[in-house]
């Protein structure tokens, strides 16, 4: 071996490993001293230039070493700080772009509205069981498309497996859920432990997860197409604003909070519109700000915004929506600071002040009694009792009030005295409608334990039967009229058509079987409110004929009432009726209605419009407004009506708020 000859320095390693060097003469220490002397001799033999070059190389390597040590330190710091970073609010969390074009749609160019996205590197898909995505037992699976939607379905399936993405700048990691919601893996979105009522995990969830999803059918595809058309108009002309004005290609503002976008979030989720959902989600993350000096209506913002955010949180598991829900929920609370605790109608969400309408100190009964599902759920999720306390107090108070007529309530309540006002007028239509709906739905939401709610509901339905039901001529349609100071009026708002669905839901939950019979009769009437009209679309209000007259139908329409605002109530009830009976006629009726919406309210350049005259097919007189509930409710209920998948929003696990936003039943059946 080269050991005996005194090896040059560059052979040092081979000499060290040689067996002689380890066990030979002089031992290991002697050999090291010899090598040091030999190297020094060699060094002295080098020219000055050679020595300079070697020294320069050593210096260079030393500098490199220092630099890499510093950057490793930074990386370590960012790892150890990660748990802190995860607690940052959504606005601070860098926005993410999907990185794998084979799995997800190609990244879109960011525009002024939608923000800019850093590049991301694809990570290994995470193992799903380790990812905490909010209340997983409540998240729903995508409806499966048929072959026409295969590409998108494949995309969704792939997304379902999830990809973990890594932001280059801050090395924060996030999960893209199967519907495109961006969720931080370490951030728990589980409700906190001090919940008021702990929702039990639905027993069938595991089995349900393994079930093959039901394919989407042609009628559902038509709904998706309609939604996309409506969304195109909103996106092109009204993005981020409250409502689309499809004819003037502009928008109208009510609260200035992107009402249509928020109302439509869970509809997109349910319809499987991943790209649209993702884009809207970015708007919520980056542009939805509640710290605004603006008056909002407590009821409308609760059912549309708070309800929409809560249901989207449940469906997607994305904590962004819960954060936003908490924000708006807190900002609405000043409404309850009244002498009677009956909330004011309006709140300034920036200033934290509330007030009744300018001309009165009354609130509308339906408004103060149809915000409970949302605030109760907010308490359950946050562990903060104040939301539930405030709305429960309203219900308890209304329960004790006099001025009811066999369970039927007047339309107004005073925020100072807490008493009903304008006594003697009873309707199931505007200003009272959802009071009845929420009695039943709160009872279901809370696990059928709150007896006062059930009592009030049952009594009210008896009141309806006793005072408000009549039959029309010539077809003898059973309808719900109104009572004013003892006088019956054969007037029925389209809004009343929520009632068959609510009655059917009650019967499904074990209430009297005759409620179902009444539901079947009433939904026929609501359908006739469409079928007997020239455009096949219902007016806002109808008057039924109580006496047979030659050449007259059951339904009469006054000039002031012949508009259609794209309202959902009939389609909503058709959905419940189909779910509970399986009778296809309900789907067929809904299909007719969808076609008539397409015929008379669809605007070619995008969007749908309310119309002024349902009696004139040649000129229905477009109103140039698409209400947010068309996307939030009407199209969602259409899609669910045409579905044969009872697990697509299972009615034993979810309860729809009055704006069609599904919230979990706390103790599911
Ligand atoms: C929606 O905002 C809700 O359904 C509310 O309960 C009644 N009005 C509209 C739809 O018609």
TrEMBL record:
<feature type="transmembrane region" description="Helical">
    <location>
        <begin position="52"/>
        <end position="72"/>
    </location>
</feature>
<dbReference type="GO" id="GO:0036503">
    <property type="term" value="P:ERAD pathway"/>
</dbReference>
<keyword id="KW-0106">Calcium</keyword>
<feature type="active site">
    <location>
        <position position="569"/>
    </location>
</feature>
<keyword id="KW-1015">Disulfide bond</keyword>
<dbReference type="InterPro" id="IPR050749">
    <property type="entry name" value="Glycosyl_Hydrolase_47"/>
</dbReference>
<protein>
    <recommendedName>
        <fullName>alpha-1,2-Mannosidase</fullName>
        <ecNumber>3.2.1.-</ecNumber>
    </recommendedName>
</protein>
<dbReference type="Pfam" id="PF01532">
    <property type="entry name" value="Glyco_hydro_47"/>
</dbReference>
<keyword id="KW-0378">Hydrolase</keyword>
<dbReference type="InterPro" id="IPR036026">
    <property type="entry name" value="Seven-hairpin_glycosidases"/>
</dbReference>
<keyword id="KW-0256">Endoplasmic reticulum</keyword>
<feature type="active site" description="Proton donor">
    <location>
        <position position="540"/>
    </location>
</feature>
<feature type="binding site">
    <location>
        <position position="658"/>
    </location>
    <ligand>
        <name>Ca(2+)</name>
    </ligand>
</feature>
<comment type="similarity">
    <text>Belongs to the glycosyl hydrolase 47 family.</text>
</comment>
<feature type="disulfide bond">
    <location>
        <begin position="497"/>
        <end position="526"/>
    </location>
</feature>
<dbReference type="GO" id="GO:0005975">
    <property type="term" value="P:carbohydrate metabolic process"/>
</dbReference>
<keyword id="KW-1133">Transmembrane helix</keyword>
<dbReference type="GO" id="GO:0005509">
    <property type="term" value="F:calcium ion binding"/>
</dbReference>
<dbReference type="InterPro" id="IPR001382">
    <property type="entry name" value="Glyco_hydro_47"/>
</dbReference>
<keyword id="KW-0326">Glycosidase</keyword>
<dbReference type="GO" id="GO:0004571">
    <property type="term" value="F:mannosyl-oligosaccharide 1,2-alpha-mannosidase activity"/>
</dbReference>
<dbReference type="InterPro" id="IPR012341">
    <property type="entry name" value="6hp_glycosidase-like_sf"/>
</dbReference>
<keyword id="KW-0472">Membrane</keyword>
<keyword id="KW-0735">Signal-anchor</keyword>
<keyword id="KW-0479">Metal-binding</keyword>
<keyword id="KW-0812">Transmembrane</keyword>
<feature type="region of interest" description="Disordered">
    <location>
        <begin position="179"/>
        <end position="212"/>
    </location>
</feature>
<feature type="active site" description="Proton donor">
    <location>
        <position position="300"/>
    </location>
</feature>
<comment type="function">
    <text>Involved in glycoprotein quality control targeting of misfolded glycoproteins for degradation. It primarily trims a single alpha-1,2-linked mannose residue from Man(9)GlcNAc(2) to produce Man(8)GlcNAc(2), but at high enzyme concentrations, as found in the ER quality control compartment (ERQC), it further trims the carbohydrates to Man(5-6)GlcNAc(2).</text>
</comment>
<comment type="pathway">
    <text>Protein modification; protein glycosylation.</text>
</comment>
<feature type="compositionally biased region" description="Polar residues">
    <location>
        <begin position="186"/>
        <end position="196"/>
    </location>
</feature>
<dbReference type="GO" id="GO:0005789">
    <property type="term" value="C:endoplasmic reticulum membrane"/>
</dbReference>
<feature type="active site">
    <location>
        <position position="433"/>
    </location>
</feature>
<feature type="compositionally biased region" description="Basic and acidic residues">
    <location>
        <begin position="197"/>
        <end position="212"/>
    </location>
</feature>
């Amino acid at each position: 071996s080269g050991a005996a000859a005194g090896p040059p320095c560059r052979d040092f390693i081979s000499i060290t490993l040689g067996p002689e060097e380890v066990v030979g003469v002089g031992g290991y220490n002697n050999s090291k001293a010899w090598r040091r002397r030999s190297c020094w001799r060699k060094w002295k033999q080098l020219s000055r230039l050679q020595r300079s070059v070697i020294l320069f190389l050593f210096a260079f390597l030393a500098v490199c070493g220092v630099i890499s040590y510093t950057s490793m330190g930074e990386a370590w710091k960012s790892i150890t700080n990660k748990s802190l970073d995860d607690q940052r609010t959504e606005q601070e969390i860098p926005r993410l772009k999907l990185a794998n074009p084979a799995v997800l749609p190609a990244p879109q160019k960011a525009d002024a509205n939608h923000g800019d996205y850093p590049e991301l590197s694809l990570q290994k898909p995470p193992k799903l069981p380790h990812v905490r995505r909010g209340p997983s037992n409540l998240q729903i699976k995508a409806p499966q498309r048929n072959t026409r939607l295969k590409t998108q379905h494949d995309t969704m399936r792939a997304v379902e497996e999830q990809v973990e993405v890594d932001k280059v700048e801050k090395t924060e990691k996030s999960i893209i859920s199967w519907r495109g919601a961006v969720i931080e893996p370490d951030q728990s979105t589980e409700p906190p432990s001090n919940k008021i009522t702990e929702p039990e995990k639905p027993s069938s969830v595991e089995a349900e997860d393994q079930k093959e999803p039901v394919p989407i059918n042609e009628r559902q595809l038509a709904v998706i197409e309609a939604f996309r058309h409506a969304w195109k108009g909103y996106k092109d002309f009204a993005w981020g604003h409250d409502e689309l004005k499809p004819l003037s290609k502009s928008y109208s503002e009510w609260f200035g909070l992107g009402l249509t976008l928020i109302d439509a979030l869970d509809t997109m989720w349910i319809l499987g519109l991943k790209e649209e959902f993702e884009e809207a989600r970015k708007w919520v993350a980056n542009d939805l700000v509640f710290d605004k000096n603006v008056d909002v209506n407590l009821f409308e913002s609760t059912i549309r915004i708070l309800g929409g955010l809560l249901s989207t949180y449940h469906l997607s598991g994305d904590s962004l929506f819960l954060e936003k829900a908490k924000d708006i929920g807190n900002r609405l609370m000043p409404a309850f600071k009244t002498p009677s605790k009956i909330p004011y109608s309006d709140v300034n969400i920036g200033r934290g002040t509330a007030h009744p309408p300018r001309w009165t100190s009354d609130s509308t009964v339906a408004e103060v009694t149809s915000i409970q599902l949302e605030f109760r759920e907010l308490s359950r999720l946050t562990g903060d009792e104040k939301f539930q306390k405030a709305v429960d107090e309203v219900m308890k108070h209304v329960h004790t009030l006099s001025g009811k007529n066999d369970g039927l309530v007047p339309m107004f309540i005073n925020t100072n005295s807490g008493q009903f006002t304008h006594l003697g007028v009873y309707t199931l239509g505007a200003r009272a409608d959802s009071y009845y709906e929420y009695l039943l739905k709160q009872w279901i939401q809370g696990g059928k334990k709150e007896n006062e709610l059930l009592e009030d509901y049952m009594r009210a339905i008896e009141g309806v039967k006793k005072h408000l039901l009549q039959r029309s001529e010539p077809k003898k349609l059973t309808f719900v009229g109104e009572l004013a100071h003892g006088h019956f009026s054969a007037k029925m708002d389209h809004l009343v058509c929520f009632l068959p669905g609510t009655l059917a839901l009650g019967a499904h939950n074990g209430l009297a079987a005759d409620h179902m019979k009444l539901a079947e009769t009433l939904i026929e009437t609501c359908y006739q409110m469409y079928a007997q009209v020239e455009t096949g679309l219902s007016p806002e209000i109808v008057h039924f004929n109580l006496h047979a007259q030659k050449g007259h139908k059951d339904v009469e329409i006054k000039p002031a009432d012949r508009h259609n605002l794209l309202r959902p109530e009939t389609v909503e009830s058709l959905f419940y009726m189909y779910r509970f009976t399986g009778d296809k006629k309900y789907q067929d009726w809904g299909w007719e209605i969808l076609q008539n919406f397409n015929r008379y309210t669809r605007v070619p350049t995008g969007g749908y419009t309310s119309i002024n005259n349902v009696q004139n097919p040649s000129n229905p007189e477009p109103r140039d407004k698409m209400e947010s509930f068309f996307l939030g409710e009407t199209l969602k209920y259409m899609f669910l009506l045409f579905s044969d998948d009872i697990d697509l929003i299972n009615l034993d696990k979810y309860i729809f708020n009055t704006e069609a936003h599904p919230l979990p039943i706390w103790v599911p059946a």
